[in-house]
Hints:
Shape: globular
Structural class: alpha+beta
Number of helices: 2
Amino acid sequence: MIRSTFHSLIALALLSGAASSQTAPAENPSSPEIVACKATALHTISAREPEIKDIYIDEDGATIATSETKVGDTPITRIIMGEAYLRTDRTDKPRRFLCLIGEKGKVLLTFFTQR
């Protein structure tokens, strides 16, 4: 009886040690493309609407596509599409978000529309 309790305690200690040594996966940091699009959009929007202090972009539902196209002579390297909220508490309706990125990560266009 004592021996089985002892073995159970050792097994429990080993299991709890293994569980505590595992770390939760780190939250994925925002992609540099989304960070750049958000910063550019926020700068533009807050100039027109100062009450907007932040933008929430649903990164889990966002699509980041690689592109090899041009608009006129301007190369487009990434296209980001998804949903965004202009009120971070999400009291507003989600808006469709589009961002075009050119060479060297330069944001060429950010666009929001209501559904």
